[in-house]
Amino acid sequence: MCGIAGVIHLDGQKQVDSGLLERMGETLVHRGPDAGAIWSSGSVGFSHRRLAILDLVGGDQPKRDPAGNILSFNGEIYNYIEVRETLKELGHDFETQSDTEVLLTAYRQWGIDCLDHLNGMWAFSIWDKANDRVFLARDRLGEKPLYYANFNNSFWFASEIKALLAAGVPDDPDYSMLEVYLSSGYISAPHTFYKHIRSLPAGYRMVVEGGQVTESKYWDLPEIDEEAMRTDQEKVDEEFEHLLTDSVRIRMRSDVPYGAFLSGGLDSSSIVALMSEISSHPVETFTVGFTDKDFDERQLARAVSEKFKTKHSEAVLELKDFEESLA
């Protein structure tokens, strides 16, 4: 998890305040405790906080490519190795082993259509030097957050709303969202609890160019014709197993230790089973239990841990812990 933030002054004349970028980044330190940096050029500026996962030395951001493009990226490109090989065949060279450089090079090769080549989770911003524009995008299912505000002739964006508020975006509440939240338990993008702040929906991208902001959907769930659904159950089972196994495999690419949350239910148990099959060493698993036995799944998690010989850790969460976290 990293944190990104930035501003584009839409008149193209106002210079970015580096102190403001610093303040925005300071609100995101918890998302990226390993490193922090800012970059600005004229009316455009990015702030980045990094949690290092891949290429601990070469993955620092904001990242500049040979064309002068700048990237600030939160997330992970799971198929970065495969995309890098494709880009090498197209004549590109690489200086690092990071997915950050792969993403920036993919943009240089394919422009905004680079998203079609990516498998992962992301929220990122790219300043395109040649075209003097900023390209922003959020992953297909919205795993990584991206909030923005078009206020006072400036376009602001960040991983969290608090960074926008630190930049001076008004915190006027949108009371019309209370009824929505109380009835459904959440607020769907693009809405938030704030009048001036929006959330970029999953599967959307934005371009800020020439003082204009355009937003478009680049991906959606496919429509399925129930009359044309596959009936070859054995082949379907084989394909599902292949897709799930490959999904787990590419998510295990990391230069730092990783683990899995384990509840003992079908989903997490299946993932741990596949991780144990792929990994050459015991998988680290973690379970949070509760004193209320109706909600406590530690016994189920232990059974799965014993089955797949994981290195298991447990913690118990009590009401007082919740109250203390609010203090």
TrEMBL record:
Catalytic reaction list: L-aspartate + L-glutamine + ATP + H2O = L-asparagine + L-glutamate + AMP + diphosphate + H(+)
Alphabetical list of InterPro entries matching this protein: Asn_synth_AEB, Asn_synthase, ASN_synthetase/amidase, AsnB_N, GATase_2_dom, Ntn_hydrolases_N, Rossmann-like_a/b/a_fold
Positions of the Glutamine amidotransferase type-2 domain: 2-211
A GO CC term assigned to this protein in UniProt: cytosol
Pathway: Amino-acid biosynthesis; L-asparagine biosynthesis; L-asparagine from L-aspartate (L-Gln route): step 1/1
NCBIfam families linked to this entry: asn_synth_AEB (TIGR01536)
Annotated protein name in UniProt: asparagine synthase (glutamine-hydrolyzing)
UniProt source species: Eiseniibacteriota bacterium
